[in-house]
Amino acid sequence: MTPEPRFFPALQAGAVLAALGVALGAFGAHALKSQLTAELLANFETGVRYQMYAALALIALGSTGRPQRAGLWLTLGAVIFSGSLYVLALSGVRWLGAITPIGGVLMIGGFVLAALDARRA
Description:
Elements: H1 10-32, H2 38-63, H3 70-91, H4 100-120
């Protein structure tokens, strides 16, 4: 008897990212609108949008019930991509923008892994 394969809890990660995305989106729209420049607010909103893309993908992947390689990549990508944009928008520290593409590459890799896993299924 082979043990059950262990895999990243994509559904749970997606649900947490989605809940945080809604909360951060509301925070940005209401509390930050008058506090940030249009450019920094746009950075914050981009972070929320891509966090929600990753969250919805994770929920979909987790709902399949099959082991997925993409979950961890998508989660790390969303945290790094969106997180760096949130910190950049709130602090104005521009060099954080150099970290953002790392998260983007991880998210792209996660979507590629999801496609490869779907092809195997």
